[in-house]
Amino acid sequence: HKIALLPGDGIGPEIVPQAVRVLEAVGKKFNLEFQFETALIGGAAYDATGHPLPEATLELCRRSDAILLGAVGGPKWDNLEPDLRPERGALLPLRKELGLYANLRPAAVNPALASASTLKEEIVSGLDIMIIRELTGGLYFGQKHREELPGGGQKAVETLEYSTGEIERVARLGFEMARKRNKRLMSVDKANVLESSRLWREVVQELAKEYPDVELNHMYVDNCAMQLVRNPKQFDVMVTENMFGDILTDLASQLTGSIGMLPSASIGGEVALYEPIHGSAPDIAGKNLANPIATILSAAMMLRVSFGLEEPAASIEGAVAKVLEQGYRTGDIMQPGQKQLGTVEMTEAI
Amino acid sequence: HKIALLPGDGIGPEIVPQAVRVLEAVGKKFNLEFQFETALIGGAAYDATGHPLPEATLELCRRSDAILLGAVGGPKWDNLEPDLRPERGALLPLRKELGLYANLRPAAVNPALASASTLKEEIVSGLDIMIIRELTGGLYFGQKHREELPGGGQKAVETLEYSTGEIERVARLGFEMARKRNKRLMSVDKANVLESSRLWREVVQELAKEYPDVELNHMYVDNCAMQLVRNPKQFDVMVTENMFGDILTDLASQLTGSIGMLPSASIGGEVALYEPIHGSAPDIAGKNLANPIATILSAAMMLRVSFGLEEPAASIEGAVAKVLEQGYRTGDIMQPGQKQLGTVEMTEAI
Ligand SMILES: CC(C)[C@H](C(=O)O)[C@@H](O)C(=O)O
Ligand SMILES: CC(C)[C@H](C(=O)O)[C@@H](O)C(=O)O
């Protein structure tokens, strides 16, 4: 399996190698061979080549079987023009170019860490939801322009567009995922206000006929934000459009209280991309303080989703759970009475 | 003071009269005269006249000094065509027609109710934030259409528009409100992706020069959703565009654990509108079970914001706090060992 490594910025170059070590260990155990090749992305790529997403990086991604990304961005590149900034100049085009139309974001609470949440333990313990966010449509990729107004001032105009096909393919993933889990799908929209949401709902409802075994429900996005706080365990699989998904996935992650633990997958095209959901954390970069677990669990997700290697994936997840049970923690999830480890040492324990 | 009463649907016709009783009591105490006139809105108006926002209702609003709304909507009207549904056919046009461009949504935790939140008590006790949501622009009032696609299927297209003037007037309210409170304003946008957010940020930054005493910060909406869960007390006044505000205000309300307590004001035009943030709760309508406090506190907000009557407003708020301290509760906020009251009895206690 050829894996493209895109460490990126901040703690990215620290955590990606840790996931590689875990993949190598699991490779030995299960007799699998991984080939790794590294490329630049984000601020690091901008510094070296003048662009946050060099052609060579895209090319490597295209001829790999899967991609493991660290994180991009940092204050150093915040004042570049928007299209050269790591987030907008690299992440968004990467998603579009590779056709990664669905972002899979599990928000699950590890039993050892339920008390780390700002929510009461009984509200979040055992939480296990999967949010599927549409990733290559909507406001993110609409037309955008400015107009000068006759009386002075300006007007910004941008479009939110969705087609039947764009909605259907991501909704289908939602139904398939629900089938593999608890057979409940919540589609989130704002159909009482948005035309694109009305089309979204129509398409999802039509598709539901193919999945009579899945219980489909619809919820408005504002109510959904409330319900995630009120009673998150009511959800199983959720599917929503790009901008709502951006907000709701971050909200859901925070419910777990330990975003340093959460992996993600972006799928849909020929090759899928895996990354921790946390950012590049420039403040702790280079200090052996970063939590490598989200990246390690992203590698496990890669094994399961891209390579169909269920047992090796479960073996990584089991190792992570065990190490946490044994009381090992990185700084971000440290609790009284537990043993604090650095990035490298946590990986060794796993 | 001429007050238009729009009870609406569900529990609306139960709670609005309770707020009227409180206003009459406070009128007696402070020697104020209120004139009340009632009109139909929402499903009740549709049933009686064929439209959820009859001309007579708009006309009453225009010649009143303030409006007190209960709630609109219910399953009975959910299958009408969108423009006749209570929410879209009455609420949105009412906002637009009356020029109510700013929605003020306090999310404050009453000390007696801090334990009702799903968040840990130390995270929310003492919480007191004010969110200002732009209410007559953005995706809500953009152009919307459908296209048939050549290969089959459809495309929905809608626009998100904001002008300098629309942003400036609501941002100004944010700065003014921050000045009256703790002098900190958080502007929430998605400037790393949206053109309208970039204009938003430019306009807010420019306006900040007039308010050197207010500390202005910017936050992306996805991060803001996380921060509201992680540490909501970091915020004082927040200002954001219509759709983000729809999501964030509901999220913030839920943090308090008692949305039956939260009032709101929609201001900007000649006359302002006050309403509880909760819905019409058709399931408990007509049973003397509804919590009238959000509506009563909306009336207090009216006294303060529309009429400048600080002392009478504070007197209502004080009465509510005292009744809660004494252990009186409606069903929605009932806690072990407290005394449960009905809608009417709770109002009497207040
Ligand atoms: C950095 C930003 C453009 C990006 C997004 O909004 O998609 C990020 O928030 C994410 O969720 O991956
Ligand atoms: C009912 C709906 C159209 C409305 C909105 O989205 O503005 C509601 O959610 C609100 O916040 O007042």
Return the average pLDDT of chain A rounded to an integer: 97
Strand tally of chain A is 14
CA(first)-CA(last) distance of chain A = 22 Å
Count of structural domains of chain A: 2
Shape of chain A: globular
Largest interface: A-B, 58 and 58 residues
CATH C-level name of the largest domain in chain A: Alpha Beta
Low-pLDDT runs of 5+ residues of chain A are: none
CATH architecture of the largest domain in chain A: 3-Layer(aba) Sandwich
Reading the helices and strands of chain A in chain order gives EHEHHEHEHEEEHEHEHEHEEHHEEH
* Radius of gyration of chain A (Å): 20 Å
Main beta sheet of chain A: 10 strands, mixed
The portion of residues assigned to helices of chain A is 40-55%
Subunit structure (chains A, B): Homodimer.
Binding site for NAD(+) (chains A, B): 74-87, 279-291
Function (chains A, B): Catalyzes the oxidation of 3-carboxy-2-hydroxy-4-methylpentanoate (3-isopropylmalate) to 3-carboxy-4-methyl-2-oxopentanoate. The product decarboxylates to 4-methyl-2 oxopentanoate.
Binding site for substrate (chains A, B): 95, 105, 133, 222
